[in-house]
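Recall from the previous lesson that a structure prediction takes nothing but the amino acid sequence as input. Here we apply that procedure to ATP-binding cassette sub-family G member 4 from Culex pipiens. The sequence below is the only information supplied.
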Amino acid sequence: SSSNNHVVHNNNNNNTAHYQSHNDIEAHHVRPFQNLPPCEPVDIQFKDVSYCVSMGFRKGQKEILHKVNGKFPGSQLIAIMGPSGAGKSTLLDVLSGYRRTGVEGAVYVNGRIRNLNSFRRMTCYITQQDQLQTLLTVLENMRIAADLKLGAEISKHEKESIIEDILTVLGLYEHQYTITSRLSGGQKKRLSIALELINNPTIMFLDEPTTGLDSFSCNQVVDLLKQLAKQGRTIIATIHQPSAKLFQEFDQVYVLSSGECMYQGCTNSLVPFLQSVDMPCPVYHNPADYVIELACGEHGMEKIQTMVMEMGNGESTDWFGDKRKVLKLEQLRKKYPLKKIIEQNDNLHATSQWHQLEVLIKRGIIKGKRDATLTHLRIGVNISIAAMLGFLFIDAGNEGSRVLDNYNLLFSILMHHMMATMMLTVLTCKRSRIWDHLKITDREFSFFSVPTEMGVL
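The prediction returns the following tokens.
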């Protein structure tokens, strides 16, 4: 097919797929999408959120988050910062709804208690590790995501228009026929974002999107997120230790230390806040690095508690810059009437189970064709087993005294087909189970579709 020809062409002749072009995304010039409707801003607030995990039998529980509070306004790029083990990813998981067991407190969406089913339809979650189908091209990944996310009522032409629009804006259009495994780190991260943009989420959660990227790729990804936030999306990302330039790209920052909020507000207000609590940031020092040093306790644990008390564990809004944009719950409920945020729809999947199964089987066939090693192993194993059984039970069917041998032959054939299929499924399942688990949680396809696809293939 022409698609496969493009793949071969890219694999053999286009070595630039290994590297990011400086023209992939023009800095600060990401145009609005033409085929995606504009997003209405969504405010997220949370109060007294705690999260506990079990330490094992008779070992009790450990509290990871300690009654934290926070306000994340709409159309903002928000960073959740803190040292390792501070609870950044845990808070992100709780806010996104991926963690529900052991969670206490309330999460509000536009002033109302979060309805998890409605909330998941307007959100997406992008993990730290890019969970992509590496044997597929960029375009094939996008088409599969569009078939699963958009539903059958959207025509093929409309889906192709949306895909082309997203790939163009994110600087991936020139690489649409490139195998995903050949993309650079920054391109893979942009592809992860592109896949989630297909159903136009209003809220995007990202777990350390800059991890493993060079400085140029980091700037590209964060600049892209900044532009997406300006188009009406609420973008919340955990980030470990950004550079000073990268730190200034974020609109708001939320700093955690041992599960408590040390600071919440504008990035530009962080230095004045530190000055107000007698912990001035040294001249020519990256404020992000300095606040992480404070959060680690390098300057004393009492300073952490001073900052937590000053912020009211996230309740204070004194450092948000324009405080008029930080609305109370009652004001948010007035601004966003109920009919605009709740749509009664019990079906959380965009397509039927049969359509999901059809798409997944097509995906599996393409991957099987591309992964020639596995196909050759299957053929070789079957030929070897057939030759061995044929040699052991030769002429067994012509002798009445060897009836038991016939039974043994049939049993051996049955066990071979069962165990060979089972082991191949186990070996290949490990590589895709994380991706499939995330897509099941994101309601792209049902739990029934995944094992059925594996059984068919």
